[in-house]
Amino acid sequence: MADSDNTTTLPFVIGRRGAAHGSPASRTIDSALSLWSEWHRARYASSLLCRVQQRLESQIMVNPGIQVLAADSPKRVREQTALISSDPRDYAVAREAEVFAMTEALKLQDSIPEVAATSLIGVIAKLEMIVGADRDIGDPTDFPWPHIASALRDLKAIAGGLPIGHRSRERTREDLAKHWELAVKLVAALEEEGAAKHRGGVVVS
């Protein structure tokens, strides 16, 4: 996760780029850009948590008997350091945290039709999310994915790319901590449910 601080971000205001397009609406925050910013953050958090999960899985396979403290401290996520252990509970939490982050990204993606872009850059932002979804489908080479990507390239050539800034380390840590805390609660609830079933003499299939 060492590369997590050298990425791009996004809350931003169109500002100077919007002024180049001349429309008063484009000088304000475009709702489509805000949506893209949130979607980008959720996808990025999901990718980081996926890597954590994979590394935890590898360590469990190598050292299945090692015991460490349970992963119920969001501080470890914020620091982005002490997540890699060999506790199976850590792995379960990382797996669920990734699901929470990806679910958030998918919900934002689903809301694209409900958000109206107010600038060409906003349209580009919407298309970036749509094209980004091709990684989640069976064959991104089928119609209409290459055609949408082609239209996106044309728009970028005309209007320019999306504004890029520096990602806030604190924002990334907050995003990770949010999903991690939700996952900790879910795993704890599942463990309690399993324990209750055993206490009640219920056989879990």
Give structural attributes:
61% helix; 205 residues; elongated; disordered N terminus; mainly alpha
Mean pLDDT score, rounded? 77
The total beta strand count reads: 2
Q: Order the strands across the largest sheet as they lie in space.
A: 1-2
- The fraction of residues in strands falls at under 5%
Q: Helices and strands: which structural class?
A: mainly alpha
Beginning-to-end CA distance, first to last residue: 37 Å
Kindly describe this structure:
- By secondary structure, the chain is mainly α.
- It has one domain (2-182).
- It is built from 7 helices and 2 strands; from the N terminus they run βααααααβα.
- Strands 1-2 form a two-stranded antiparallel ribbon.
- Helix 2 (31-62) packs parallel to helix 5 and helix 5 runs antiparallel to helix 6 (145-159).
- The chain is elongated, with a radius of gyration of 21 Å.
- The model is unreliable at 1-27, 67-72 and 77-84 (pLDDT under 50).
Provide a compact summary of the structure.
The chain has one domain (2-182).
